[in-house]
Design a protein that fits this description.
The chain is mainly α. The chain has helices spanning 2-23, 27-43, 46-49, 56-76, 80-98, 107-132, 140-273. It has a domain at 2-137. It has 7 helices and no strands. Helix 1 (2-23) packs antiparallel against helix 4, helix 4 runs antiparallel to helix 5 and helix 5 (80-98) runs antiparallel to helix 6 (107-132). InterPro entries: DoxX (IPR032808). It is found in: Membrane. Keywords: Membrane, Transmembrane, Transmembrane helix. It is a multi-pass membrane protein.
């Protein structure tokens, strides 16, 4: 829109000019701003106050540089909403300071501060409007609410689909489980039939081989009996021969023992006579 292309540079020109004046501020202006800087540092938290320069000249130069940069961005239409918000913050210290213009004893300085307050309020209103200008596009808040609404609608639409999908999945799972159970039962019955058939075949084979095994055992027993019968006379002769040898050895030993007993008896008899 052409109106924005005209209004933004006009609004930005005031900040660019103010920033240039701050960069070229003479010593009296710096001395006047020093109490404002000190009061601002005292009002801020300790960790934030350490970031703010204690020297008014440095603070004015930083504020002026920010105003020049923000003004150029606003004038050229680059991130105008962000630039406008930044420019609004640069007006806060001077607006607060000029707001107490009635405390000024010098009439000329009091009037100057009053005019400066009015000017700052006007500029502040302008940059606040510029920061809220979406150029006809939906704002962030509206887009956020729209996305939340779309998400709620999508969720509401997805719930029935999810429920149907869950029911379908459960039904399919139940059908599959029934089919698996039936297949398992059929396989179990088949395995049982095969086991029963194999057991019957094994029983028949055992019954067929039992007479043969019995005959083999009987023949083996007869063979062992014949072997024992054949070896019995020899074993008996060996036992008789061994018994005869033992008898001769016992007779010889008994004769020797009897002779020794007679000799010892005679010796004892002679001892008693003497």
């Amino acid at each position: 829109m052409i109106l924005r292309k005209i209004a933004r540079p006009l609004l930005a020109s005031a900040f660019v000019a103010s920033g240039i004046e701050a960069l070229r501020a003479p010593r009296p202006v710096v001395d006047t701003a020093q109490p404002l800087v000190d009061a601002g540092r005292d009002a801020l938290p300790a960790d934030v106050a350490q970031v703010v320069p204690a020297d008014a000249a440095t603070a004015l130069r930083i504020n002026g540089a920010v105003q020049i940069g923000g003004g150029l961005l606003l004038a050229t239409g680059r991130i105008p909403r962000v630039a406008s918000a930044v420019l609004a913050t640069t007006l806060v210290p001077s607006t607060v300071y000029d707001g107490a213009f009635w405390t000024e004893t010098d009439p000329v300085r009091r009037e100057t501060r009053k005019v400066s307050l009015v000017k700052n309020l006007g500029l502040l209103g302008g940059v606040l409007l510029a920061s809220a200008d979406t150029e006809g596009k939906p704002s962030l808040a509206w887009r956020g609410r729209r996305r939340a609404h779309d998400a709620k609608v999508a969720m509401a639409a997805a719930l029935p689909i999810g429920e149907k999908a869950t029911e379908s999945a459960l039904s399919a799972w139940a059908d599959r489980a029934a089919v698996d159970a039936q297949e398992f039962g059929e396989r179990a019955a088949d395995v049982a039939d095969r086991g029963r058939a194999r057991a019957e075949i094994a029983a028949v084979k055992v019954a067929e081989r039992a007479p043969l095994l019995a005959d083999q055992a009987r023949h083996r027993a007869e063979e062992l009996a014949l072997v024992v019968a054949d070896r019995a006379p020899g074993l008996a002769r060996e036992a008789a021969d061994k018994a005869g040898e033992l008898g001769h050895q016992a007779a010889d030993k008994a004769g020797e023992l009897g002779h020794q007993a007679v000799v010892e008896a005679r010796g004892l008899k002679r001892r008693f006579r003497s």
